[in-house]
Amino acid sequence: MRSKFWMVAVAMLALILGGAAMLANAQDSATTSTTQKAWQGRHARMKYMARELNLTDAQKAQVKQIFQANKASGLPLMQQMAANKKAMLEATANGSYDQAKIQQLAGQRAQLMSQLLVQKQAVRHQIYTQVLTPDQRTKAEELRAKQISRIDSRMQRLSQGGDNSSLQQ
Questions:
Q1: Which of 10, 58, 79, 132 is 20 to 30 A from 153 (CA-CA)?
Q2: Rounded CA separation 92/82 (Å)
Q3: How many domains does the chain have?
Q4: Up-side HSE of residue 149: CA atoms within 13 Å toward CB?
Q5: What is the DSSP string of 57-109?
Q6: Residue 127, exposed/middle/buried by CB under 10 A (0-12, 13-18, 19+)?
Q7: What is the pLDDT of residues 20-63, one digit of tens each?
Q8: Long-range contacts for 120-125 (Cβ within 8 Å, ≥24 apart)?
Q9: Would you say residue 149 lies in a domain?
Q10: Is residue 66 part of a domain?
């Protein structure tokens, strides 16, 4: 009887500790900031482009330097985007709908997105003009043409009443 009690107690303790570990892990991933996720996504895209364009180690170092130089100016914008997203979530909590507040937040987000896109294109321009060789520029233009083609094909499917799965690609 006594050993059965201890077995149950140990099993319960293991369940509690395992649950606590899973909860801590879930909170860590849930608290990953929008800023961190954005930079992680940018890093993944850069790895893809570096591989596709066959960048040398020196070129990768140059690209990294360009990103580091521009990170300081982009970080405040990313933090403002995160704050805007939080404000939107708070403004719409519990089914709330204040059209004026939502319109104001949407306008702020549009302005921030505009600034981020301009900065992103400036960084791309720096990389294109300062890092890539003529052959790599040609390859980059081929990749851009493929991307445009994919967008055109998705738009065509949407205009023909295609299903929503094309939006998820």
A1: 132
A2: 16
A3: 1
A4: 6
A5: HHHHHHHHHHHHHHHHHHHHHHHHHHHHHHHHHHHTGGG---HHHHHHHHHHH
A6: buried
A7: 555 555 544 544 555 556 556 667 877 888 899 999 999 999 99
A8: 122/70, 123/66, 123/67, 123/70
A9: yes
A10: yes
Residue pLDDT, tens place only, 120-158: 999 999 999 999 999 999 999 999 999 999 999 999 999
SS3 track for 119-163? HHHHHHHHHHHHCCCHHHHHHHHHHHHHHHHHHHHHHHHHHCCCC
Give yes or no for residue 107 having a pLDDT over 50. Answer: yes
- The verdict on residue 118 lying in a domain is yes
| pLDDT averaged over every residue in the chain | 82
Domain CATH code at residue 95: 1.20.120
pTM of the complete model beyond 0.85: no
Report residue 152 CA to chain centroid gap. 23
Range of 110's domain? 41-161
Enter the tokens of residue 105.
Answer: 């937040």
Instruction: Yes or no: say if 91 and 98 are a contact pair by the CB < 8 Å rule.
Output: yes
